[in-house]
Specification:
Number of strands: 10
Shape: globular
Radius of gyration: 23 Å
Order of helices and strands: HHHEEEEEEEEHHHHHHHHHEHHHEH
Structural class: alpha+beta
Number of helices: 16
Strand content: 5-15%
């Protein structure tokens, strides 16, 4: 117990404590630890553990993380209660549209308002607003609405359905990244007709607003929604492309270009929970690669999860955040063990690797999806196998379509034709499998069932680790 440990052990234990602290604070409604004194205590414990890094003090780091999670969540819950005091009342809310509006199946518009003013009072938190009629609202607009405030759900402090829009203000110069994205999307659509144009832009920058409700439903049935949501998959493709392209110049140039693309991609796509997770994962992995090191995937998961929860504890109940981390665990933890178990040290081809990673990601998010939606896609594995290998090519072609239209419109028509053919193939796959009567299976799972599923999954991973002796340190998101 007197053995000295590396400082990273205490940091990772602290991160685990933060995750447990945030989860328990939300579950139990812990709000007593909001004083700055608790934060000072946390810092004192962590400094002590780093100065005296002995194995016997590892539980102290875990306790420090737990207290940090309680402290941060207590503050967040206090903000939540400030908004909830207006529940059941007709209120006037002004806020900034935090993410791209979402078009629902019934044609209504859903927006997430941030930086709130409720009845002239400045409050923290996010509110879900649903507007029954079509309104020209874009990300970063300042919107004022009237309506009856309802209970909170997920990561939202409150919600208003059938809200009345009073005003929409678009700041100047406003959201430049969003304006650039919309301008570039207009160029792409000149040579890639609908619905292929909008679907291709969904691949490239995660823009869903222009997709029809019928296409969004097809993506859901076929288990392909993730390909049009700005996430780790899209970002990983971009980072890997930049790293390999600029490595011909230097390692520094490759790292700099990849970091610039990460920041640019997040600015264009928006800072959603999944994008925040993806950006931190890609950035930390890239930094480790530059210095000739690697993050252990489990440590990376804990570090990024703790960081994002400290920024916004409500992510712990956000579906996008949960699915993002679930798929991340699948790709970087489960998939390598499956590959090692069935193929040993044999190098597998790209198609098999896509199959394994897709299967792993979907297995890891399946309990969450069943718990929230009560259904699962039976055809998702097959549709992902048929489409995912060509997504990087489609992204490159969509990008080339817009660029060539600026430089050489005649060539752009040819590039656009090829792009349209490829995306039409994707649409054909979605239409065929999405219209099968048995494509979706109704199934229900309690929270205890979800815990049991992940317990079994952890047992399977442990067994494969013992059987193969595979070390996860070999996995890296930027390789």
């Amino acid at each position: 117990m007197k053995k000295k440990l590396h400082a990273s052990v205490f940091i990772i234990c602290g991160c685990l404590g933060i995750i447990i602290g945030v989860a328990t604070a939300f579950w139990l409604g812990i709000t007593f630890a909001t004083s700055i004194a608790w934060l000072i205590l946390v810092l004192a414990i962590m400094i002590f553990c780093l100065v005296v890094p002995k194995a016997m003090f590892v539980p102290l780091a875990l306790i420090a993380g737990l207290l940090a999670g309680w402290w941060r969540t207590g503050i967040s819950l206090a903000d939540l209660h400030q908004v909830q005091q207006f529940n059941g009342q007709v209120v006037t809310i002004t806020g900034k549209v935090f993410e791209d509006p979402d078009i629902k199946a019934d044609g209504s518009l859903a927006i997430k308002l941030h930086d709130l003013t409720i009845n002239s009072r400045r409050l923290s938190g996010d509110v879900y607003i649903q507007i029954g009629r079509k309104t020209d609202i874009k990300r970063s607009d300042i919107v004022t609405v009237n309506g009856k405030l309802s209970d909170s759900f997920g990561s939202f402090a409150g919600s208003i359905f059938r809200a009345q829009v009073n005003s929409v203000t678009r700041p100047k110069p406003g959201d430049i990244a969003r304006q650039f994205r919309d301008w570039f999307g207009g160029l792409v659509r000149k040579v890639v007709p609908e619905p292929a144009g909008s679907l291709g832009l969904g691949y490239l920058v995660g823009q869903r607003r222009s997709l029809s409700t019928s296409l969004i439903e097809l993506l859901k049935i076929t288990g392909l929604t993730h390909i049009v949501v700005a996430s780790g998959y899209n970002l990983t493709i971009v980072v890997r492309f930049a790293r390999r392209l600029f490595m011909k110049v230097s390692k520094f140039a490759a790292t700099f270009a990849a970091f610039a693309l990460i920041l640019g991609f997040i600015a264009i796509a928006g800072v959603s929970p999944s994008m925040l997770r993806a950006g931190l994962v890609a950035g930390l992995s890239l930094l480790a690669w530059y210095y000739g090191r690697k993050f252990h995937p489990v440590n990376l998961i804990l570090l990024v999860a703790a960081t994002t929860l400290l920024l916004s504890p409500s992510y712990i109940v956000d579906l996008g955040w949960l699915l993002s981390f679930g798929s991340f665990v699948g790709v970087l933890v489960l998939a390598p063990f499956i590959t090692a178990y069935f193929f040993g040290k044999q190098k597998v081809n790209a198609a098999v690797q896509v199959l394994i990673e897709t299967f792993s990601a979907q297995i890891c998010v399946l309990p969450i999806l069943i718990y929230f939606f009560g259904e699962m896609s039976v055809v998702s594995l097959l549709t992902n196998m048929l489409i995912l290998p060509t997504i990087p090519i489609a992204m490159l072609l969509v990008f080339a379509s817009g660029v060539t239209y600026l430089i050489w419109p005649v060539l752009a028509n040819l590039v656009g034709w090829v792009t349209t053919k490829l995306i039409n193939y994707h649409l054909a796959v979605m239409n065929y499998f999405g219209n099968l009567g048995w494509a979706m299976l109704e199934i229900h799972l309690s929270i205890i069932g979800v815990a049991a599923c992940y317990g079994v999954l952890a047992g399977v991973i442990w067994y494969m680790k013992r059987a193969t002796g595979y070390e996860l340190l070999q996995a890296n998101v930027v390789e």
